[in-house]
Amino acid sequence: MIFFRVTQNINIKTTDGTMVNYFKFKEPSNLENETLYISTYDDFKDLREIFSKVDKEKYFAKVFNEEKVRTLRNFPIELGITNIDEYNSRENSTITYQDIKKVDIYKQLKNIQKDEITVAIIGGVGLSISQTISSCTALRILHKKLKQIYKNIKFDIYLNASNNSYYTREKQIYQTQEYINNILPLSITVKKLCEYDYFIDNSLSINFLGLDFLNYVDAWLFRFGIDYEKISDNQKYNQLNLSGYKVQDILRDKINEAKSKGKLLLFHPYSANINKSIPQTIAVDILKELLLKADDYMIISTLLIDSKIKDDRFVDLTKESKNLNDFMYIISSMDKIITADTSTYHISDAFMIPTITIFTDENYLKKIKYFKYTKAILIKDKSKNLSKFIYENDSLIINKFESWNKLKVNRIIKLLDTFWYNSGLKKYKKG
């Protein structure tokens, strides 16, 4: 965390319209006040950049000595891996994984005689949709463990907001987690933080800590000070609650109409990462074959695959899938799913939807370690680039798509059929 003051009053609006107010320091006072702020290192850097664009001579943030703040009588207890003097460490690049010491959260907890304890979580638990959803599982386990000690727990999570284009999306994910009390934008004042019993500083995320050899859930449990090896695999499932989401009438109607014609199969071939995506030509061929061979299903897509494909059994929901909530609702409505390596299978696991995920990453087993409703197909890319120049020439790439061309739709359908569906329980299980 970074402790700082600002030289001028300024208001910053988040992507969902929430206003974050900063007030300049006027005169000496008790440090437990509303003009001394705390944020993550990354959010602080964003804030500095905004200030510089407004007026770099008048608007800037001054780092404050955090030791003076941490010794305040009301300053809350830090849980998990501690992150003291982060500003100097990050600025000088002196933090390494070898410096990170395993901690035991149970030794950090104090005997607080209250019916309810509050925990401030500074920074989110993921950088992508996939990571955030899976990492929320670790946060849910943490909440459950604390509930064994304290009667009531309130988790408030504070997200990077100064220049975070994904703030609204992240907020939508956290709103699906029943154990989170409130979702708020950073920065937080020292006065406000001192109202909490505990805090967790996520400024040093698992990505920075070098924990990428672990599954997301395990990595964050380690970050929180919980021995992930002592947590049952059966607890490490994703959970999403969409009860607070109001679905668009047109989206609900289109899905219901499709359901009246057959089972629903979502085909999601593209990822934000091109290396994880199914190549477009291959995706088009797969879609055409699915329409020919998967005759029990209505094929659903939220992506533009081929505008030329017109089929009564193909439903394009590209226009109706306007945000993450829409996408999650669509996934929750499916019978089965075929997807590239993207957030889709992290979401489908929460709704127990049988999913075939096509991976290009040989470390895929780490990703799906706790996913009971996901089966994998690995594509090993055998293409070789004969060009040594930065600007590549497609004609100099050999064996292009060779591995993808070997992927057969019949194989995918057969793998899908290994799942069985108990309509009475409304739960999917692996056969």
Please give a structural write-up:
The structure is a single chain. β8 (152-159), α6 and β9 (180-185) form a beta-alpha-beta unit. The radius of gyration is 24 Å and the shape is elongated. The protein has a six-stranded parallel sheet with strand order 14-13-12-15-16-17, sandwiched between helices. A five-stranded parallel sheet has the order 6-11-7-8-9. A four-stranded antiparallel sheet has the order 5-1-4-10. The chain has helices spanning 41-55, 66-70, 86-91, 105-108, 129-147, 167-174, 190-193, 216-224, 249-259, 280-293, 324-332, 344-350, 364-367, 402-405, 409-416, and strands at 2-6, 10-13, 19-22, 37-39, 61-63, 77-78, 116-122, 152-159, 180-185, 188-189, 198-201, 263-268, 297-301, 314-316, 336-340, 355-359, 374-378, 384-385, 397-398, 419-422, 427-430. α5 packs parallel to α6 and α5 (129-147) packs across α8 (216-224). Helices cover 29% and strands 21% of the residues. It has 15 helices and 21 strands. With 431 residues, the chain is of the alpha/beta class. The chain has two domains: 2-235, no CATH class; 258-430, 3-Layer(aba) Sandwich (Rossmann fold), CATH 3.40.50.2000.
